[in-house]
Amino acid sequence: MKEQRQHHPPSWAQRFIEWYCKPGLVEDLIGDLNEYFERNVQTIGPRRAKLIYVIDAFKFLRSYTVRKPILVNFFINRIMIGSYIKTSSRNLMRNKLFSSINIIGLAISMSVGLLLIAFVLDMRSYDRFNRNGKRIYRITNIATFKGEQGGKYATTSIKTGKLIREKIKGIEEVAIMRSNFSQDAQVGDNILPIKGFWAEPSLFRIFTFPMLEGNPATALKDPYSIVLTETAARKLFGSQDALGRMIRFDTLNYQVTGVMKDVPFFSHISFEALVSLSTAEQLNRNDKNFEEWTNMWSNFVYLLPSENADMASIRSQLNAIAKEENLAEKDTKIQLGLLPLYNIVVGENLRQSEGGPGSLGPHMSPVVLWILGGLAFIVILSACFNYTNLSIARAMRRLKEIGLRKAIGAGKSQVRQQFLVEAIMISMIALLLSFFLFLVLRPQLINLAPEMQRTVKLELTPAMVVSFIGFSVTVGVIAGFMPAIFFSKVSAINALRNVSSVKAFRHVTLRRALVVIQYTATLIFITTTAVGYVQYKNILSFDLGFDTENILNIYMEGNKPDVLLNELREMPQVTALSRSFIVTGVGNYWGGNMKYKDSHDSALVMTNHVDENYLPLHGYKLVAGGNFISRPATAEAVSEVIVNEQVLKRFNIGSGNPRKAIGEQIILNGRKLTIVGVMQDFHYGKIDNLIGPVAFTFWTQEDGAIINAKIQSDDMPATLARIESAWKKIDPVHPFNAEFYDKAIEDAYSEFSTMIKIIGFLSLLAISIASMGLFGMVVFTTETRLKEISIRKVMGASFGNLVYLLGRNFIVLLSISAFIALPVTYLFFENVVLTNFPYHTPVQVTELFAGLLAVLLIAIIMIGSQTMKAARSNPVEVLKSE
Amino acid sequence: MKGSNLGEFEELVLLTIAALMDEAYSVAICDELSRHTERSVKLGVVHAVLNRLEEKGLVKSQLGEATKTRGGKRKRFYELTMQGKEALIRAKSMRDQLWNMIPSLIWKNL
Fold first, then answer.
1. Given CB 3.0 to 4.6 Å as the disulfide criterion, which of A114, A125, A588, A688 pairs with A438?
2. pLDDT at res. B2
3. Nearest Cα to A351, choosing from A532, A140, A83, A167?
4. Cα–Cα distance, A511 to A514 (Å, whole number)
5. Which residue ranges make up each domain of chain B?
6. Nearest to A424 by CA among A386, A475, A468, A466
7. What are phi and psi of A82, to 5 degrees?
8. Is the CATH number of domain B8-109 3.40.50.1820?
9. Radius of gyration (Cα) for chain B, nearest Å?
10. Which residues in chain A are contacts of B47 at CB distance < 8 A?
11. Percent of chain A with pLDDT over 90
12. Is ipTM beyond 0.90?
């Protein structure tokens, strides 16, 4: 008998039967199964007996055993919900402190959730305005160069578009769109830069871009026709009619053949004007490469398959085309893929060709969304933990109510419902509050980065409101889940007998675990912020190998720099001037192909074209040789090069001695150049790149120019204004585009600062939520132990003793969190994040512990204030009221 | 007509209930059937049949007293109703009639 007792049938299977079985049948059915189980334990052992039990539990799931869903139940519940809301709101009012901790905590964390939901919905609303959106695809090129994976490109060749139009069956429309049309439009005296694409008439049949004036079928047919958006037309022609007018770009006249509605904000392609693709064909008619299969760098091809088209067949036809075209190519192999329109903005990262068109529109990879979602989830979960903790801790006070409810016939499920309703109620109140927070935070998020402004609006839509409410209900359910389970298990007898406090405290471990999890997450957040911030500051102040202080880079926008140089020379605040082709160290690259003696051994080196003042102005250190000697006027005449040490190393020039390298000849982009100087290695790229070979050649008038002006001024704004007015005289069309070098470096790493801001914000929320939760717990513990404290005091416990007694547990919990959180953060940075930065400084102990110290300080202040309050209380007052 | 006819297994179950008298509950019925038919009778089948017989009104059932075995669950005891008894007698008499029609000569070689 004793042995039998030890084996019980699996309880979940029993509950499963109870759940599905008709109430009339359930008892003897389970009884029968139990009897069989007991018998099986004897004969074939407990393990197989359990298995058979489970199998039987499922076997009895038959039409005659399953209970019918009862409508009556539903009505009873509806009636009861009123009662639940009433008792819940009374309970809320009674415990103002705990209610406000719960509501504020949930509201703060939910505001993050709301922002994220709004953001995701905005990202997902991209391109949905297209009536045929579901059917539209973009061609993706998967290129392999010389057997090396080149990656997936959003662009393809013009030939692809034409071949698809000719050969593929089951396609309604194909449109080729070529980027980037960017020129200055001249109408009379009015000059404005216009940006857009070269496109085919079919684009209007694929995308829903309504035409206000002009015929969409023919507007983009003839060469030199242009379709303007409403805004662009108004900018160029004011209130006058734009249709049929001429616009001059450079030396060519274009006719306005249409005016269309502005491109919707949520479109992945945006432009001010479309120029007929036939124009591009005319302009490039001498370029044999223009329609090559491998010229896949700046054209987009959009497809609209016919309705009910067989996509598999279209795919195989695309593969056939690619196969045929690849036959003629030796080094480059291209596969064609289809990317649904709705997966362009939120989807896989695709490559854009270097130096080619910028990204067509905003893009967010789902991974980033998942990470952000995960972080927000942690913060929300933390607030839910507060709710769970405080509700269970204060269970004693509500046990009578539950006991009574159970005594008059409430079932487990009804008690569960009651507490879920209560939690949802609180989360709904929190939703109201968090909505206001959302309105406050929204502009902050949008202004966080310039890309944000271009990407999202976060405007309220019906879908958004519905998801907010759904989100709030979900949060309520998560928060109320544990208390609901806990309270539903309370037995009526115990609850009413008032000895139940013992039972309520059985969940101490659970509560402690929740506090530890909460604080671990908080500490990870805050130390990540601290470490990230320190690393970011290190990056900004990193010694790139040259000076960047007080250097203003002025972009010439196609103008010749000489006039402005003369103007600048006259300003006393400008102490030095130089010209360069690009700004290095901020993620700009310009490459060239270099060879030394061995004509088969070539390497990619990074280059810049600089004048003779560039090196001294930026303080480049030369290890051998000197500055440029000759001053060539044309790119043809350039004969000298200054290289860095990596070049010598790569080609083994001068066999380790830089001096010997002077006078050696190398071939850069097919031109023979003499090395006149060797620079110390410096950071040409961003500092997450390893230092590679770099070569500087002389800047000539044929290059685009950036003026580097070293400025010494006490009144920077005034100096900048002077420079800007000088610019205005030279180029009235383009806005003054200048940036301090240090600012450019900051911008180059702006994604880090955005990330740190976001994580910092989240850690601020996490820490305030966790602190509020801890505060609630401390208040509760001291309240319930007030009598104990008084008795101890009477017996002679000192003040210090009492504070130690009350605070000890919390400090232990915090220490456990710290022991988990700090190593995790440290390892995360050292092994995951910082491996991407070959030149990083190691994580220091100070920043690791700074966050911990802050959290501990807040916690100690809270614990201390409450325990001191309790310890100071007069035992007479406390003990006399019984 | 369909409702009043007994299937073979139904008849066996009814007979077992009658034979077990006061001890007729699902597991006992199952065991008894297994013993007599010398094949393993599944509880699920017995359960379903008992349920069907009760629906037809051939048996009635009530819950017994709770005991320590079976995890404290009560047994459901079955007994025949008048209709049940009639159905059994009808089935038996029908068979008897048929038996009587068979000349004894046939059994000679057995």
1. A114
2. 46
3. A140
4. 5
5. 8-109
6. A475
7. -55, -45
8. no
9. 16
10. 29, 32, 60
11. 13
12. no
